[in-house]
Each structure stands twice: as C-alpha cells, then as structure tokens.
UniProtKB/TrEMBL annotation:
Keywords: Calcium, Disulfide bond, Glycoprotein, Hydrolase, Metal-binding, Signal. GO terms for biological process: carboxylic acid catabolic process; establishment of localization in cell; lactone catabolic process; negative regulation of superoxide anion generation; regulation of cellular response to drug; renal sodium ion transport; response to toxic substance. The active site is at H114 (proton acceptor). Its EC number is 3.1.1.2. This is Paraoxonase. InterPro entries: 6-blade_b-propeller_TolB-like, Arylesterase, Paraoxonase2, Serum_paraoxonase/arylesterase. One of its GO terms (molecular function) is metal ion binding. It is an enzyme of class 3 (hydrolase). Glycans are attached at N269, N323. Belongs to the paraoxonase family.
Length: 354
C-alpha cells in the first residue's frame, strides 16, 4: 500500500509538472513565428553592441541608455565588460552614442545597470536613477547629470529589503519612485520555477525616504513601469502574462487597478510618447528563443504602440517587428519628435526617423 501511495503521488506530480511546462511554453509563445514590419530610415547605433536595455529621453532630446546588463538566464555576448550609461542628443542630424563618465568613488567594475528613470527638479537639475545589480543584488543608484562635462556624479545608493529582484523604476519626485519586482525568489532556478508554476507573487513597490511599501500585487513577472504624462496613472508590464496593467495613483501613493490590456506578446519596458500620451512597448515575440539562445535562430524584436489607453477599446498597432536578422531581444522603444530609439537586452540598438 505504501508503494502504491508513493507511485500515485509521483505520477500526479509528474503530470502536474508536465501540464505546467506545456502551459509555460504557451505563455512564452514558444512556437510563434513573427511577421516582419520594417521601418525606413534606420541604422544600428555605432558602439552599442552589448545591450541597450532601457532608454529615457529628456524633454530636451537628450537620451540616456543603459548598457551591458548581466541578467540570469539571458544571453551575455560580452561577459567581461562592465555596464555603462550612454548619452545621445536626438537634436543632432546624425546623433551618436557617447559613454558618460562617472565620478570617482563609484565602483564601475560591478556596475550592472537595468531599468532607468530621470527626474528634473525645480532648478532644472537632471537626476538619473539606475537600477543596479552589483554581485546580482539590487540597488538603486542616484546620479546627478552634468551636461557640460557629459558626466554623472554619483550621489547615493539606495538599498531596502523590499527592493529585491528590481527590474525597472519610474521616478516622480525627489527620491520618490515606484519600482517593479520581477521575481519573488532571488536565485535563478527558483525564479524560473516560479514562472513555470505561474505563482503571481511579484509586485510594485513605492519608495521614499519616509515610507517604503508594496502598492500593487499579483503579477506573474512585473517588468517595465512608467507614468502617464499627467502622472495620474501608472502603467506596469507583466512580461509573462503578456499584458499591461493600468493603475490609478492616489495622493498617498497607493495604486488601484483600473484595467488590463492583453497584448499576446511578452511585454518588457514601457515608455510614453510625449506628443500624445501613447504607450510604446518593447516586446519579446518568442521568449523561448531568448531563454534558449541560438545565434542561428535568434530571438526577434517587436515594438507596439497602444493608443487611447484609458478608453474601453485601446488601439494596438505594430510599429516594428524583426525576426532577429537586424535586432535581437528588443526590450524598449522611446520616441522624440518623429525619431525612435529601439533597445535590446543584450544585443544592439536601432535609430530610426519615422
């Protein structure tokens, strides 16, 4: 009888694991093939070879680009290179990427930048907030941008027990930001198991010097985050649930979910078009190719535009789609007055005039 019980439990467990693996393959679009949608007037950005995971463009047209992310489970084409922040001036006729110098006292050897967000204070000083993963931990680094010197002055490192497995942030005040946690577990095996089991244990955190709290729960893998132009709404991408959550921001910084927009593709980082408030989403059309990287059959790239976000019927259109022949593993797209930058987790970056 004891052996029968053991065999029954084992059989049920294997059946459950098999069902979860099949469901996981479906969630990450493991069999999807991409229909191309190409843009004209494009070229790859010289010097950005090891990723451009997140991009934030100032109202002045200066674009910050995070480069060199080392992330468990993701391809790494330059394992010995440390991370950098690049700058591009999109007002120039032929903008080029320039690596920003970082002030003495900051350990650049272990700089591993992920999501980024800018904040401009009342005296027009620009601050860059960077999610950093030194030694595969999570911190938020605050830098002051010196435009004339094209440099960053490191001001502060933020650590907190709730700021674990941080993916992206959006800054809305001095040291006041929302951050996404993309995994509950901090080890790669358990994080992968968490996604396979579809646990929905990740969340959004609000941070300020006076208060740190969880403000939204129930995400499979909370990823990119940004705010509407009027800062009344927060947009959060759930990458493995293939959707965007629209959340209303309250005076106490709590968030209330208004709606979810299903997209059918794995949504990474989000930005907002400053001209009209549309959401732009960098997406992974087939994440199996990302997790099981093969340069002969690389992961593709996809960029979506979501219009009329708050309406009953948002309009979703594809701006760009490529099978990996040009751009692999797109994570973000950001626009500025008819120009678009498309970044990737580990590959190159694309600049186009729309």
């Amino acid at each position: 009888m004891g052996k029968l019980v053991v065999l029954t439990v084992l059989g049920a467990s294997l059946a459950l694991i098999g069902e979860r693996l099949l469901a996981f393959r479906e969630r990450i679009n493991a069999t999807r093939e991409l229909e191309p949608v190409e843009l004209q007037n494009c070229h790859l950005i010289e010097g950005l070879e090891n990723g451009s995971e997140d991009i934030d463009i100032l109202p002045s047209g200066l674009a910050f680009i995070s480069n060199g992310l080392k992330y468990p489970g993701m391809p790494d084409l330059a394992p010995d290179a440390s991370g950098k922040i690049y700058l591009m001036d999109l007002n120039e006729q032929n903008p080029r990427a320039q690596a920003l110098k970082i002030s003495d006292g900051f350990d650049e050897k272990f700089f591993n930048p992920h999501g980024i967000s800018t904040f401009i204070d009342k005296d027009h000083t620009v601050y860059l907030y960077v999610v950093n993963h030194p030694h595969m931990k999570s911190t938020v680094e605050i830098f002051k941008f010196e435009e004339q010197q094209r440099s960053l002055i490191h001001l502060k490192t933020i650590k907190h027990e709730l700021l674990q497995s941080v993916n992206d942030i959006v800054v809305l005040g001095p040291e006041q930001f929302y951050a996404t946690r993309d995994h509950y577990f901090t080890t790669y095996f358990l994080a992968l198991l968490e996604m396979i089991l579809d646990l929905h244990w990740t969340h959004v955190i609000f941070y300020s010097p006076k208060e740190v709290k969880v403000v939204a729960k129930g995400f499979n893998s909370a990823n990119g985050i940004t705010a509407s132009l009027d800062h009344k709404y927060i947009y959060v991408a759930d990458v493995t649930d293939k959707n965007i959550h629209i959340l209303e921001k309250h005076d106490n910084w709590d968030l209330t979910q208004l709606k979810v927009i299903q997209l059918g593709t794995l949504v990474d980082n989000l930005t907002v078009d400053p001209d009209n408030g549309d959401i732009l989403a960098g997406c992974h059309p087939n994440a199996m190719k990302l997790l099981n990287y093969n340069p002969e059959d690389p992961p593709g790239s996809e960029v979506l535009r979501i219009q009329n976000v708050l309406s009953d019927q948002p309009r979703v259109s594809t701006i760009y789609a490529n099978n990996g022949s040009v751009l692999q593993g797109t994570s973000v797209a950001s626009v500025y007055h008819g120009k678009i930058l498309i970044g990737t987790v580990f590959h190159k970056a694309l600049y186009c005039v729309l």
